[in-house]
Amino acid sequence: MATKLSFTFQFPLEKSSKSFQRNPNLALSNPNHCDGFGFSKKSSGFRGQLSLKENALQGEVTQSTNSETTLLSPTSLPSSSKLVLVVGGTGGVGQLVVAALLKRNIKSRLLLRDPEKAVSLFGNQDEEKLQIFKGDTRNPADLDPSMFEGVTHVICCTGTTAFPSKRWDGDNTPERVDWEGVRNLISALPLSLKRVVLVSSVGVTKFNELPWSIMNLFGVLKYKKKGEDFLRESGLPFTIIRAGRLTDGPYTSYDLNTLLQATAGQRRAVVIGQGDKLVGEVSRLVVAEACIQALDIEFTEGKIYEINSVEGEGPGTDPEKWQQLFKTPQT
Q: Which residues are in the NAD(P)-binding domain (predicted)?
């Protein structure tokens, strides 16, 4: 049975409180979920390393000393009528989705196995901004209808590693997470939703072909494709974002203020494709922003997009630029 947890916190970005009815000395452990391509959450060796700035955001788009634009720090925005359920909200992409929603004053609800991780990342938020439900998508009994009441949009960022690792402990395999968990979630969602955005991976349609078959040795691409297909056939309004190899982050040892200051280095330009033809890398920050932008772009409903990021100036948080990118994908 799902458990709802309440928060009481006024929302200064400068610090994150951790008074979530818990042992205040509880340390944040690495989440079982990672996202997208299923690579290890260590970012060493990836291009576009995280650039962190020490000063707190003051509502404006900030720049680091080498003019890197912060994707997740738009100017102050009015509150939204949306209620966005984020599944996998403490993973590499999910935590950036949640941080961006909070910055935009969009009410969010998280479905998490371990709510303590949300407190470590986002602090104790007022329930009008952030709600937490404890549950596991691998267990259908956890997906109580109450957790979906009032939800208008869903962003699912769950995932695990492609190859056996410690993150597979506790039956956290691709089959259980990318297929069974996604299937259980979609089966429980109400048809009244305005959009479901699912983060998947490039290469899912070619998992029997080299080099993708190497990545798929333990089924990660096959199971992601099964999750995609189940969503497509569900009758729910959907958008699927297939990410390339993920760079920048994950930032699971940081707090909300740090998340909001993360940048995509020099790889801010965005390439969007269709037909599963893109090969390359993508910043987790870009994937998170693409998910949020897709919620409001009507023509992305029922579509599947691949996404990479390359060196150059990108769309940032500009809705018009994102609309143009989604409107003219590479095929």
A: 88-296
What are the percentages of helix, strand and coil residues in the chain, rounded to 5? 25, 20, 55
Closest CA to 286 of 257, 307, 258: 307
Count each helix (H run) and each strand (E run) in the chain, helices first.
9, 11
Largest CA distance in the chain: 52
**pTM greater than 0.85:** no
Query: Which residues are CB-neighbours of 67 under 8 A, at least 6 positions away?
Result: none
Contact 185, 142 (CB under 8 A): no
C-alpha–C-alpha distance, residues 262 and 108, integer Å = 20
Q: What is the pLDDT of residues 38-83, one digit of tens each?
A: 333 333 333 233 232 223 323 333 333 333 334 544 433 445 789 9
Round to whole Å and give the CA distance between 117 and 98: 13
Here the tokens at position 152 are: 């208008």
- Higher-pLDDT residue of 31 and 325 is 325
What does DSSP assign to residue 52? -
